[in-house]
Amino acid sequence: MKTLIGIKIIITVFALSFVFVSDYARQTESKSDKKWWKEAVVYQIYPRSFKDSNGDGVGDLQGIISKLDYVKSLGIDAVWLNPIYASPNDDNGYDISDYRDIMKEFGTMADFDVMLSEMHKRGIRLIMDLVVNHSSDEHKWFKESRKSRTNPYRDYYHWWPAEKGKPAFRPSYFDEEGSAWRYDSITNAYYLHYFSRKQPDLNWENPKVRQEVYSIMKFWFDKGVDGFRMDVIPFISKDTSFPVITPDMLKKYTGGWAEYYADGPHLHEYLKEMRREVLDKYPDVMALGEGAGVTLANAHKFVDADRKELDMFFHFDAVGLGLSPKGYKLPDDKGWSLVDLKKVYTKWSDVFAQKGWGSIYLGNHDQPRMVSRWGNDDPAYREASAKMLFTFLLSMRATPYVYYGDELGMTNIRFNNISDYRDIETLNWYKLLKSKGEDISVYLKGWQLTARDNGRTPFQWDAGTNAGFSTSLPWIKINPDYITVNEHLQENDPQSILNYFRKMIHVRKGNKILVYGDYKLLDKDNPQVYAFTRGSGSNRVLVLLNFSKETVVWNIPDDLKLSSHILINNYPELKTFGHAVSLNAYQAICVELK
Ligand code: TEU
Ligand code: CA
Fold it and tell me: pLDDT above 90 covers what percent of the chain?
């Protein structure tokens, strides 16, 4: 009888809580609207540098296939693969010459099909890169387009007839002379290229171009891919009168040219059209924008569900911290401050507190290595700080993206010579700065911290020849620290960064509060500790991150009571005394609150 009553009580409590939960869900529908891509942890693979299967020094699809058990073992849900399409590799695949073919160095379409099915067998989804703001100048469309002013493909790109004079200045990200207009003598006209000369911008104002893009997307969705990461998608729409942009006009854009480029007149029309014509037809796919130039003020336009555009985008506010406004990618002498970092991440979390959804990353193929940029790659602190950064990345209210190799705490390679660099960005900035007579040594030093190639060196599988990446010399140098920083060593060490990373993914997966729960920043002015809570009411987790190499005493606010349930800790113990905790260098913990 007693047990029966007990069961009854349990059932009633259960039923009541169910009523409560569903009521809660209804009130905050958009806030806790569940989606696989909100709960997912995404692992980014830079195919050129992951694993080489045929000994030519370049990573490839068969290489990826051979490592899928490893990828699965991380506990991630999806892979975002940088471009693998046919390309002359002016910008490592971000210059595509055939959107329906695989880059020869990477393999064949048959390899792709095997890769996709092997991923799906393991429950891993595949997010492909979609690079359609521009194509390669070796794409058939551009080859035709430049032939004559009356060619049927002429309007696939932006041309400015030279008899109208020089077009109004637009800066290029990668051009060695700086301008986004390139004169082409064949038709006596200039074409637009926001990136390199070999990356002409597609003319999205032409409906035919948009239809081409939608048909490419369908081609890959029909093969079964699970989503796209859309390269500089906010740049697609242009004011085709190409007016003169005065410094005064640019003032409106605090983020400079990127913000201007991201503010084209028909951008949102096109995103809606893409949703209608493509994404809606594949209900479970994910649409992620690379949000270059997107501000907090217009964030919702891109991702609110009722806008029917994208699902989320990468913002650029954090990656710019600590860079000097004086020069291209020069680190500021003062560095960056934790208070500013907290501000940025808090703003970008809060903006989606009620509606929309965010993403978070600490490294990618355009960024230096996570631990060198945001942690401390001194061997004394590398492990603790990398673990701390993963605790941060995987406890925030946004979909986390992890860049290959960061799970080992791979570090910046810090090239001394320009000849070691492979990246068009660095190489062309070098030429540009040299032609302007700038002090190159300052830049070479700065780029040891910021250059993209730091994050593109081969994955360090083991301490053997070429770090187990390839049987021959790789396309870019291997970081010499591979002897001590490699997958093989970390696999067998329960205390390794790799195993901590796996554990932290497990913690996130086991505590949905870390996905959907409210985010609240504490102690915002503390220069060393990043402290915040996730969740609400009696269901809350406290995250404490010491971003410094000093031991820091942190006073627990009066209204917080730590439980004994520590979800994760990157040190063997947590020292508490009275109403304070003492955090070791780069210590990180997640603890449930009472
Ligand atoms: O990057 C877009 C972008 O805004 C870059 O200029 C970025 O800011 C820069 O790389 C930072 O150093 C995307 C891709 O992620 C990048 O790899 C490509 O080179 C670029 O587009 C052109 O496709
Ligand atoms: Ca290869």
Answer: 93
